[in-house]
Every structure is written in C-alpha cells, then in structure tokens.
Amino acid sequence: MKRYSPLTDDQIRLLDEIDFPWVVDPYEARWDAKYQELVDFYNKNGHLWVERPSALYSWIITQRRKRRGKGGTIPLTNEQIRLLDEIDFPWTPTEGRRQRESFERKWQSRYQELADFYKEHGHLKVKYQSSLYYWTVTQRRRRRGEGGRTPLTDEQIQLMDEIHFSWTPQNKGQREE
Asked: Which one of 7, 15, 125, 132 has the fewest CB atoms closer than 10 angstroms to its CB?
C-alpha cells in the first residue's frame, strides 16, 4: 500500500539528494533558535555578557552545565561545542568576567582616542565613515538603548560629557570628509 504524499517521487528523490531533514528534532530546533539569538546578541554588542535575569542568560548557564555533564541534562554535541567556541562562548563565569573586562578596556581605548582627537582639534567632528565615527554612532545608540545594545554606564556618559560629546549631532546632513 502506497502512502499519500503531496510530493512526487522525483521531488522526494531531489530532497533526499540534498539531505533534507525529514524529521525535525524539537530539542535541536530550540537549541538552534537560542544559539542564533546568542549570535545576534554577540553581533550587536561585541560580547556575550548577557544581563540577568533573562531567558538568554539562563540558556548560557544551562550550556555550561551541559558541557560539564551536570544537572541530568542532555550533553552538548561536539558540533554545538564547536559553534559556541566560534563565538568565544564563556565556558566559565571567570571567562565571562574576562570578556567583560576586555570589552571595557576596548571602550576605554576608543574613548581615549576620541578624547585625544578633541584635545588636538578642539572639536569632535571625526572623519565620516572612519572607525571612530562608527564608534561614536554606536555610543549614541547605546545611550538611547537602541537595537538591544548594552546601555552606557553613568560613568561612561559622564566621561563623554566631559569632552563635550554631542548626544544629538548637529548638521545631520553635513559630514566632514
């Protein structure tokens, strides 16, 4: 007895040739969705120190437990470990703290670059489309809390204010070349 399928035998053969996943594992699909959420967070923020409490923070803790084989959970596959390693996943809280400290050092370095520019030129009109220009755009977005970015700290805002950083740039249509 032949089973009814809306697909023709040729269509099924073509899908088989590209290893089409006929059965989707719901656990794997949920893991993939959370992993993609973490990748998106990383791409927006440049780090993986997710604020708690949040579902993504809890997922990170769970991945650490799974890697250690703790808590009666299904262990991570080698492929999942490889994917997490690709985005510098912090396997221990200590690694997470190191990433945060590195992120803060990078922020301080870029801030110092901007402060030096101000000291030398007496203004903050950095070259349009330079890396420093994009950094200043990101700081404005972080202050406004846009795009899921990690907000600026009060200390960072104060430092930017001390060099007369404009949170709402003047002459939006004019760009320094």
From this structure: 7
Question: pLDDT tens for residues 60-80?
Answer: 999 999 988 876 778 999 999
H or E element in which residue 45 lies: helix 26-45
Distance CA(100)–CA(93), nearest Å, equals 11
- Phi, psi angle pair for 170, to nearest 5°: -85, 160
Asked whether 56 and 35 are in contact (CB, 8 A), the reply is no
Distance of CA 44 to the CA centre of its chain: 4
Which amino acid, 23? Answer: V
Average pLDDT, the chain: 84
Other C-beta atoms within 10 Å of 152: how many? 20
Q: Picking from 2-16, 23-37, 67-81, which range would have the lowest pLDDT averaged per residue? A: 2-16
Q: 176 vs 54, 64, 95, 173, CA distance in Å? A: 41, 47, 40, 10
Is the peptide bond preceding residue 53 cis, with omega within 30 degrees of 0? Answer: yes
